[in-house]
Amino acid sequence: MSEDTTQVRDEASRIKFFDTTLRDGEQAPGITLNTREKLEIAHQLRRLGVDVIEAGFPITSQGDFEAVRAIAQEIEGVTIAGLARANEKDVTRAGEAVRHSKQGRIHTFIATSDIHLTHKLRMDRAQVLAAATDAVRLARSIVDDVEFSCEDSTRSDPAFVAEVVAAAIAEGATTINLPDTVGYTMPDEFHQFLTTVYELCPQLHDVTLSVHCHNDLGLAVANSLAGIQAGARQVEGCVNGIGERAGNASIEEMAMILRTRAEHLGGLWCNIETTEITRASRQVSRLTGYVIQPNKAIVGRNAFAHEAGIHQHGVLANPLTYEIMDATSVGLAQNSIVLGKHSGRHALSHALAELGYELDRDELNAAFDRFKAVADRKGRISAADIEALVSDEMRTEGPEGLRLAECAVTTGGDVPHARVVVVDADGNEHSGEGTGDGPVNALMKAIDDAVGTSGVLLEYHVSAVTGGKDALGEARVVCDIGGARHAGLGVSTDVLEASAIAYVRAVDASRKVEEGERVTAGGV
Ligand code: KIV
Ligand code: ZN
Q1: Whether residue 434 has its Cβ less than 6 Å from ligand 1
Q2: Fewer CB in a 10 Å sphere around the end CB: N or C, the chain?
Q3: 181 lines ligand 1 (CB under 6 A)
Q4: Hey, where are the domains in the chain?
Q5: What CA–CA distance (Å, rounded) separates 379 from 364?
Q6: Residue whose CA lies nearest to ligand 1 atom number 8
């Protein structure tokens, strides 16, 4: 059977999507997103139709706080959540960050398993119960929408979970989340666990039950599915399934299961605009540097490809032979936009609108200049090129940041040599030179020479935005600058220039972000 989207939709069967790409996802090793990048992703999550965006963990750093606040201020029509441990400081800080949203949510949590109580929290059950109660009460005095999570719930005593959940509901929690923090549970076990908590705490029927499953055994989506079959009406996950360790449940897989197998799921449905999935997936992959495995369900580049002749023959005769989903339903092969060097501002603006970008006049002018410069060098500009350019343009630091004005590298002799000019916020030009054991190394040294930094390259990725010899190159760097990790991304037809832009942006980020102490709770 192919997908069925004709089911009757009643509110009680609606599954809300809680996206934590910007919080749990961003906790994955090596991911460092700045506020601008987080905003870009948040805009796309809104287009994707998620119900809640968990924008960050505000107490962990000034940068995280500001990103959550900026998202709460700018993104409308979706709930914006900030994470907080169950203590006064965390909850107050999360409240300050989300208070500018019309739909702000504080998400507070504490572990309930004896393993966590003994070895991490060093608290007894009575203390945990009291902390949960106080945190929810305080959160409810700040916002109307409070989610409470029992961290490591699946390894906890269900009777204790039920007791803590009952207390949280009594204090006004509106959503109760029971996470499989360490990805340990099995689908039937999880179903039974949730059924037991429902029995021990019937008040749970009065609020939204949420599930948050990690993928350590590759069961995150299966467990989330078991969760909604047991009565959960909110599912938590990340785009591309990124997140701590093996990641979280993949948002796109959950959405396409609901769309494709609605009849099997008794008509459960969601508000996800599935045609935005591909764009969200590519954007998150590009900004996080997390490459998508080719055979990843829904968003892998082979997910809709048919290699074997017998399959190709069947699909040509009738797509139902081997395709359970239509590629256009996830936003693939939807647009065939191709612009060229003769395309004008109007054509670009039309293409951008079709891609979902709303640019004001200045932004359009800047995007057009960029487009022209690239079109002159590259000829044909595809939808993917336009997206990369616009998102890159939105990332340019503007008058307030450092900008690469010139760069030249010579690699013909013994030692690569680079020269750069970097312009600062006041318009002053800084020239620098450097040599290195490779052209990228020489460029980084030249930039360090120009602006007086000394960065160490920790990660470096270059990829082609589209296929073809004239593809735009996208470079991503993660560097240690002054003891903190900073990431930068650059796009150009010249990969060395893209690399230099990326490094200048990382240096710029290092100057702007005042990193506070980064706090991560175990398993979160
Ligand atoms: O995995 C987990 O338990 C979490 C909680 C904070 C919800 O991320
Ligand atoms: Zn988690």
Answers
A1: no
A2: N
A3: yes
A4: 13-288, 338-393, 403-515
A5: 20
A6: 524
CA atoms of 121 and 476, how far apart (whole Å): 38
In this structure, CATH architecture of domain 403-515: 2-Layer Sandwich (3.30)
Which atom of ligand 1 lies closest to the CA of 523?
A: 1
Residue 25 sits at the vertex; the CA angle it makes with 465 and 111, to the nearest 5 degrees, is: 175
Tens digit of each residue's pLDDT, the chain (524 residues):
445 555 568 999 999 999 999 999 999 987 888 898 899 999 999 999 999 999 999 999 999 999 999 999 999 999 999 999 999 999 999 999 999 999 999 999 999 999 999 999 999 999 999 999 999 999 999 999 999 999 999 999 999 999 999 999 999 999 999 999 999 999 999 999 999 999 999 999 999 999 999 999 999 999 999 999 999 999 999 999 999 999 999 999 999 999 999 999 999 999 999 999 999 999 999 888 888 988 999 999 888 876 666 666 677 777 778 789 999 999 986 556 778 888 888 888 888 877 767 778 888 888 898 888 888 877 788 877 888 888 777 666 454 689 999 999 998 777 999 999 999 988 999 999 999 999 999 999 999 999 999 999 998 988 887 767 777 888 988 899 988 888 888 888 899 999 999 999 889 888 875 433 343 333 33
Question: Do 180 and 223 touch, CB atoms closer than 8 A?
Answer: yes
Pocket test for ligand 1, best of 121, 149, 214, 244 (most atoms within 8 A of CB): 149
> Which ligand ends up closest to the CA of 211?
1
The reply to whether CATH 3.20.20.70 applies to domain 13-288 is yes
d(CA 109, CA 442): 47
Question: Is residue 434 classed as helix, strand or coil in its secondary structure?
Answer: strand
Which residue among 27, 106, 212, 236 has the greatest number of ligand 1 atoms within 8 angstroms of its CB, and so is best to mutate? 212
| 346 alpha carbon – ligand 1 mean position (Å) | 46
User: Are 258 and 269 a contacting pair, CB within 8 Å?
Assistant: yes
